[in-house]
Each structure stands twice: as C-alpha cells, then as structure tokens.
Amino acid sequence: DSTVADRQVDSVCPYCGVGCQLTYHLKDDEILFVEGRDGPSNHNRLCVKGRYGFDYPRHPSRLTTPLIRKPGVAKGLDPDFDPAQPLSHFREASWEEALDAAAGGLTALKAEHGPASLAGFGSAKCSNEEAWLFQKLVRTGFGSNNVDHCTRLCHASSVAALMECIGSGAVTASFMQAEQADVVILTGCNPTVNHPVAATFFKQAAKRGTKLIVIDPRGQALGAYAHQTLRFTPGSDVSLFNAMLNVIVSEGLYDQAYIDAHTEGFEALKAHVAEMTPEAMAPHCGVSAEEIRQVAREYATAERAMIFWGMGISQHTHGTDNARCLISLALACGQTGRPGTGLHPLRGQNNVQGASDAGLIPMVMPDYQPVSDAQVRSAFEELWNTELDAEPGLTVVEIMEAIHAGTIRGMYIQGENPAMSDPDLDHARAALAKLEHLVVQDLFVTETAQFADVILPASAWPEKDGSVTNTNRQVQLGRAAMPLPGDAKPDWWIIQEIARRFDLGWDYTHPREVFAEMQRGMPSLDHISWERLEREGSVTYPCPADDAPGADVVFSDAFPTADGRARFSPTVPLPPDEPIDGDYPTVLTTGRQLEHWHTGSMTRRAKVLDDLEPEAVASVAPGELRRLGLKPGDALTITTRRGSITLRTRADMLMPEGMVFVPFCYAEAAANVLTNPALDPYGKIPEFKYAACRLTVA
Ligand code: SF4
After folding, report:
1. What is the pLDDT of residue 3?
2. Beta strands in 581-674 (DSSP E)
3. pLDDT value at position 152?
4. Count of C-beta atoms within a 10 Å radius of residue 544
5. How far does the centroid of ligand 1 lie from the alpha carbon of residue 12, in Å?
6. Which of 65, 265, 281, 539 could make a disulfide contact with 568, Cβ separation 3.0–4.6 Å?
7. pLDDT at 154
8. Which parts of the sequence belong to the 4Fe-4S Mo/W bis-MGD-type domain (predicted)?
C-alpha cells in the first residue's frame, strides 16, 4: 500500500524559530506525511507549514548536480530563465571540477586583492554545525570577518540592545512562560502568522486569565483574545514606550528594590522621560493618553509580566531604540528573572538563534565574543591553530555597498537568497551581478543562484543530521530521514571541501565531531553533548550539569555584564528615515504570510501551501480600496523612490488606513524592490517596516 509508511524518523520543523518537534512518516524514502511530536515548544502541535511544507526535497527543480556558468551568459535575473531548466545558462560539472572552480575563483581573488576582497553569507536555515564551519572558513580561510547572515535583516537590532543593556542577546525566558504570566505584551509581532504554534500558547494563556496586550499598527487574530489593543501610528514606537515609562515613573509604579539590586542608570532614565507625558506623546502615537496610561499601569502592577516582540520592533532605523525601551520597561518594573516574567524577541528562522550563537556575525566570534578582544582571538587562534583578523567584518547591506565600491569582489553564499531578501533589490542585484566570482550553495537555482559562477547542490533539512537552536534557547536534534537526491551533498561536506582548497586541512567525518569542537569554543553549550541531544532530543542552554535540565528563565540573581547589573539606555524619538509626504503618502510595510516562508524557495514548491497562497497580494484596508476605486482582486501598482511592483489587492479589515502590507516571498512582485535600505546605526538592520509609497490603479 503506497499510503502506509514503512518507517518513522524524529526531527524538528525546518521553518520558524518555534522549533516544533515532528516525526516524518516515510515510504520508500519519500515523506508521506508529518506529525507533531511532544516537544517542549509544541506539545504535538504543528502549523500548516510544518504539516504540509515537505514537497521541496523531491521537487522536480531540485538541484542534483553541480553547475558552472556557461561562457558568455550574462549574470542577472533573466525573465526567460527557467529555474527548472538551468542548463540554458549553466552546464553540469563533476564535483571535483565545480569545487576547484568555486574555491579557485575565491583563492585567486584573495591572492590578488587580499582577504578583504572576499565575503560570505551563511544561513539560518542550516544547522549549528554548518554555521560553525562556514564562519570558521571565512575567518581562517578567507582571512577576514566578512561573514553575516539573515539575523542582520531580522533581530540584529534587538540583539544590539540586549547585549548593551543586559549583556546577553538571547531571550530571558521561553514563550511557554507566558502561561505563568499575569500580563503579556505582544508588540511588533503577529504570532498567529509568524510563530503559529507559539500563538497557541498565548491564546491558551489568555483563555486561562492572562491579560494579553497587543501593541501594533496592524490588527491581528490574537486581538480577539486581547485584554487591550493599542493600534498606534507606524514608526511612533519610541514615543509610545517612553510615554509608558513616563507613567511608570510619575505614578511611582517602578520596583525600586529591583532597580537598586540589579540595575544602573535609572535616575538618568527618570529625568529623560520626565517631559514625555502621555499627553505630549499621544498625538504622535495616534492613541489616547488614557490608553497609554492603562497599558503602562497593567504592565507595571502585574505580579508577573512578559514582553514579546518581533520584526515590527526590530526592522526600523530606530529598531535598537525600540528594543532599548522594552528592556527599560522590564527593568523598571522588575519583570525579569522570575517565572512568568521576561524579555523575548521571537526569533524568525528555525536556526537564527543557533547560527548567531555559532558565529555567523561579523563583529563577534561564536557566543558573541568580540573579534576586537585580543583574549577572545587568542582563545580561538589556539583552538583553530591559526591567526585571526582583529577587524570586525562588514554586515549584509554593507557588503552589498562594498561590492559596488569595488572592495568586495568575491562571495560564497550558502542557503541565503539576498536577491530576494535584501532591501532595495535593484541595487542589491546590481551588486551581485558585479561580483567577479560568486559561489552559491543551495537546493534550487534561487534568484541569487542566477547570479552565480558556480552552483553547488546542497542538502535539505530532512536529509541531514544536525542541531538547531530555537527561539527558547532549546538546542534540538534533526535527523537524516531520506537520502540525498542525485549528486547533491551534505552542506558540511561541501564547506569542508572548499576549506581544503584553502589549505585548511579539515578532516571532519560527521557533524557530531563539529559539535564537539563547538563545545570547546562556546561556553553556552556546556553540558549539552551530541549524545545527550540524541538521548533527550532537546536541551535548553544555559545548562548547569550533564544531568540537569537547562534554564528556562535566566538572570534571577545577576546579569552577564561585568558588574552583574543591567543598564537603562534612554532613547529619543526619531522619525522614520523616509516619512510619508505628498508624493508618497502611504506607509509600505513588508513581512511574511502564514503559508509561505521567507523568499518562498521552499514553500512555493509545496503544493498545499502554494494552492492556499498562489500569488502575490497587497493587503489594504477596505476603505483605502474604495478610495482608490478598486475592488478586492484588482491590480494595484505600488511605487517607492526605488521602484514599482504590480500585484492584486486583498481587502484586509486588520489593516489601518494609509498603510499597505506586502509579503516578500513572491519573485514576480518582489516587495524588496520597494524597501528602504537605510540602516539602524547599531544593529545595521534595514527599515523593512516603513517606506513611503504611492498606490495607483494598475
Ligand atoms: Fe514549523 Fe514554526 Fe509551524 Fe512549528 S510553528 S510547525 S516550527 S513553522
């Protein structure tokens, strides 16, 4: 019977940072269906992606052999190019030839122009071990710290604020702690869409009496369970949060004992917010002073309260300031370090936490140890038996600028798709086209791979063993369930083969050996061995002993700063980089849909998901549609200072007037053609959540 599975393999979902555990049910090495398992973050639940998102490993357009660009074929997106028929632009090659060409182009550029001429993007879709190897290759082979990944487009600003204020970039408590909280603030996030199984925990908590407070310009499904919603004016976050701090200070709602015991700088914060009364800030925020007061009081007077945030907070030029405000709220009210309290930036990709921990970041080594610190470098130099560059590397958007400037000439991109995910795509794609040598390692001929000189066919998540770390700091093990198709290879093997051609002499035979090396360089992995992961499936870091569970809630006694204290970091409200005006009167915001993942390379190849959401749509408030004289489904053109796209409209009651939402997964109407590349100065994250645009009938 072709519908009855002949074996099961336990693993973890490859999509979002919730990290749901699942079981593949296979027949003849094909995934028949997937079931949720009783993992700590999902309790048997899965969302639609975790259930139906597994057509991609065996999709007909899957890359199964290395490819080399044919001579004379221009680089760039060609509207006639068919990713399922890549041989019009590329020719097949043996692994030996492809690896020699891939590494040869990079080593030649390094020899002629020096280490700073190369850069690499690793992937939050790959395992911790693959991330570790990739950053090690860039630092020890390429010879610079020019290595980054999509955290730069995601929570880099949150991490910058958390590192500055509390000394650690990870969450202080898991999202399961929401069930013990009296008040939960959700701001700049839409968990039902982006962290669907985490949303079920919030919903259950609300049903049991937790007061949910949803603070976001857009409405959302969890609004139905909310005690209060604040739909503020886009871009006015810092004004709103400072007004809440003003209430907490002026009404004496802060926790002086906690502040005295655990923090520094509260007096300066008090003085700083003194003028930012709800009455002064409310006109900027589009909500009433009384609503601001109510929310501040609810949060400050709760016995246990948590704050969760997403990219509505982080993806602004003031993203770090947004996160600083949220941290100040928690510190002022003593809402960290106890069950049911905490700060939790909801991580996006399945392994963005782990890839960041493992060092795919240009200014820090693994475990966020600064590359500029001589002691840190010396420890890694000893571990890797090499010399390391002391200069922090360039970030994602800076690397694109450096290509235009002629500084960066060659790149190795593993599993990321900047030709869809970077802001101001025309500019980013022009940079990719300008590269003298580009190696792309992926499952498909993605938009980025269309710019490559060499394409290396990689492994899909169900085809490999590896660990990943979810938003809760839970390190979990994924297991190989099916063979690699054709001549595709494990990612760790490919990175190692490139490293060997940089004379690095690596000799790993399995990811478990890489994990053992990671444990030597990453204190966060103390007491979490590969064998333990095989046995237990999931272990939370930090973990105090080989036989003890990890810490779900951290920083009860002290923060991991030099003096054990957290710091308040006052913030000044700033306008968005590109405010709306008469020519561009509407706010464009971008993000994900429930059914599709990031740039769509996996989910648009999943039949059920693609049937549910088959084409690009722009979500617009019904009143806005009427004003434009459009009906739902009519074509709309959206124009910003960087470009235009045309797509269908969807009437969305949850959208505010004056705003349009476009998901960024559709290549045929790529939202990032429109977005603003202006960066937050601390996290270097672009302002994906606010660009001035104009809507016109197509
Ligand atoms: Fe996968 Fe996230 Fe859905 Fe869980 S919630 S099944 S991890 S996409």
Report:
1. 82
2. 586-591, 617-620, 635-640, 643-651, 659-663
3. 85
4. 11
5. 9
6. 265
7. 84
8. 6-61
Residue 315 to residue 188: CA distance in whole angstroms:
9
Distance of CA 551 from the midpoint of ligand 1 (Å): 23
Question: Inter-axis angle of helices 396-404 and 425-434, to 10 degrees?
Answer: 60
Q: Is 16 touching ligand 1 by the criterion CB < 6 Å? A: yes
The predicted complex's ipTM stands at: 1.00
Q: What is the pLDDT of residue 191?
A: 98
For the record, the structure tokens of 624 come out as: 């806005």
Supply the Cα-derived Rg of the chain in whole angstroms: 24
First-to-last C-alpha distance (Å) of the chain: 51
What local confidence, expressed as pLDDT, does residue 109 receive? 98
> What is the amino acid identity at position 625?
L
Per DSSP, helices labelled H in 487-636 are 491-501, 511-521, 530-536, 607-612, 622-628
Which phi and psi angles does 111 have, rounded to 5°?
Answer: -65, -40
User: 243 and 282 in contact (C-beta within 8 Å)?
Assistant: yes
Q: How far apart are CA 352 and CA 244, in angstroms?
A: 31
Contact 358, 134 (CB under 8 A): no
Cβ–ligand 1 contact at 46 (below 6 Å): yes
pLDDT at 80 (0 to 100): 87
Ligand 1 centroid to residue 600 C-alpha, Å: 15
CB distance 537 to ligand 1 below 6 Å = no
> What is the helix (H) or strand (E) element at residue 454, kind and residue range?
strand 454-457
Q: How far is the CA of 637 from the centre of ligand 1 (A)?
A: 32
Helix (H) or strand (E) holding 10: strand 7-12
**Residues 371 and 377: beta-carbon distance below 8 Å:** yes
Predicted pLDDT at 479? 96
22 lines ligand 1 (CB under 6 A): no
Determine the residue of 56, 195, 612 to mutate for testing ligand 1's pocket, defined as the one with the most ligand atoms within 8 A of the Cβ atom: 195
Q: Which of 339, 214, 183, 370 is nearest to 287 (CA)?
A: 214
What is the spatial distance between Cα 140 and Cα 107, in angstroms, rounded to a whole number? Answer: 13
The whole-angstrom separation of Cα 555 and Cα 565 is: 10
Gap between the Cα atoms of 487 and 632, Å rounded: 46
If DSSP codes are grouped into helix, strand and coil, which group holds residue 297? Answer: helix
Which positions of the chain have pLDDT values less than 70? 1
